[in-house]
Amino acid sequence: MSDWRIYRGAGLPHDGVRRLPEPPPWRDFTLSRSSGSGDDGDEGDAARRLGVQRQLVENLHPRPEEVEAVNAALYLRRPLLVTGNPGTGKSTLAHAVAHELGLGRVLRWPIVSRTTLQDGLYHYDAIGRLQDVQLDRAVDGERAERPPIGSYIRLGPLGTALLPRPDGEEGLPRVLLVDELDKSDIDLPNDLLNVLEEGEFTIRELERSADREPVSEVLTDDGDKAAVTGGRIRCTTFPFIVLTSNGERDFPAALLRRCIQLELKPPTDKQLAAMVTAHLGEEALVEGEEYIRRFLEREAGQVVATDQLLNALFLTQRAAGAERATRSRLAEMLLRPLDRPR
User: Fold this and answer.
1) Sheet (strand 200-202) strand order
2) Can you give the pTM of this predicted structure?
3) Terminal CA-to-CA distance of the chain, rounded, Å?
4) What is the pLDDT of residues 20-51, one digit of tens each?
């Protein structure tokens, strides 16, 4: 029987491991997260990651009410507020819409307790500009030209999503994923209201210098350049915005009124099979049949995320040579309900 363990708890060094085994695909940080640096290896890694994402979204099998909610948000130009337990596919839904409608890369704005509206709109590097001005003066004296303010402004995900669409793409929205809005502080949902209602915002630093620089070029969240006139950005097509929440807090009625609300239920057997196959291959469906059944038949009210199941299937596959009791303990540890009392 092969020893699957890396750390053996013996208290003595051993030379049985020269490098760690390959990680799960969703925890492989060597894979490029963008689509291209020109290097063949990076392009291959990006293709693998995109292939997994494509397989997930193409086999999502959304329920009729999920399809109806997405269409309501698209028709009404309203954000889609998606709630549900962790691992129910809230984020995948944004990628599925972007993939099916050919709307390009999904802009992602992950929310934490310190996130502010300003983080989503733009960042102005005032210190960097001051340093460059001082450096230029030290080299060229008073003749040095002031660097354009736009060079020190980078739009955030929300600011980029609100940019007017280029010629030829008018009418097509960008897709923005505002992930885990319930993690924010109490002010952010209310701060979002005006931007979501008006579809515009002002870059104060550019507005103040509009007389000298009517049009400024700024960097976008994509890493591209965009022209901003008069310091104001106003969308021509309201973006398709998916706000996700794990239900850890209630939102103000003013935000709920502006959103199409959708609650995702736990994945069906078809959705679960698509997730497992995309990440681990079809053989995992057969080898992990017991754990998949346990996941689908869990008690009412128990919360177990799909990534817990993927972790259990991946690790028990790697520990295939271990005793059955060992594999069972691993699965029990990884499939522990999130709401189980400690």
Assistant:
1) 122-124, 153-155, 215-219, 225-229, 232-234, 200-202
2) 0.83
3) 34
4) 888 888 788 775 444 433 444 455 555 556 66
